[in-house]
UniProtKB/TrEMBL annotation:
This is NADH:ubiquinone oxidoreductase subunit NDUFA12. One of its GO terms (biological process) is response to oxidative stress. Pfam families: NDUFA12. InterPro entries: NDUFA12.
């Protein structure tokens, strides 16, 4: 709404507007925590972690790893799980943490880090289906210009 002087009386920096903006973001976050299991932890998961879990560590990506406080699983081992940073994708778990999650290692990488070899590269998640996916030369999805025909190919024509 315009004032008599032709200026707008709405000021987005007013405290009420800031409060409403924060409430809207907070409400979206609450909805995500209730329904969006693929993007972090839901409220139920956070409740289970608070009640039954023990924080073990965080990897370089930001994934958080937990272990059950008691041996409540069917095989007598403490259950282990990960809460992903961002979108839930199992390929985001580095090899050392994957070994701990699958009971290959008894101690987590925070207590017994694996020795790094000189030839090892840093862990990367699977980029299939993303713009960062590898596209080999000659692929239709490759962004590079296709090489010119060499002339050794002769198209078939029906007689």
């Amino acid at each position: 709404m315009l004032d008599e002087g032709g200026e707008c009386s709405y000021d987005p920096l007013r405290p009420q507007a800031l409060f409403l903006r924060e409430f809207r973001v907070g409400f979206d976050d609450v909805l995500n925590k209730i329904f969006a299991w693929w993007n972090g932890a839901t409220i139920g998961t956070l409740f289970t972690i608070a009640k039954r879990g023990r924080f073990v560590g965080t990897d370089e990506i930001g994934n958080k790893y937990y272990e059950a406080k008691d041996n409540s699983s069917y095989d007598g081992r403490k259950r282990r799980w990960v809460v992903y940073e961002g979108y839930a994708d199992a390929s985001k778990v580095p090899a050392d943490w994957h070994g701990w999650l699958r009971y290959t290692f008894d101690l987590p990488p925070t207590e017994a880090p694996l020795p790094r070899r000189a030839w090892e590269k840093d862990h990367l998640p699977n980029f299939t289906g993303t713009p960062m996916a590898w596209r080999p030369q000659g692929s239709l999805a490759a962004e590079a210009k296709r090489p010119a025909a060499t002339g050794d190919y002769q198209a078939w024509t029906p007689e």
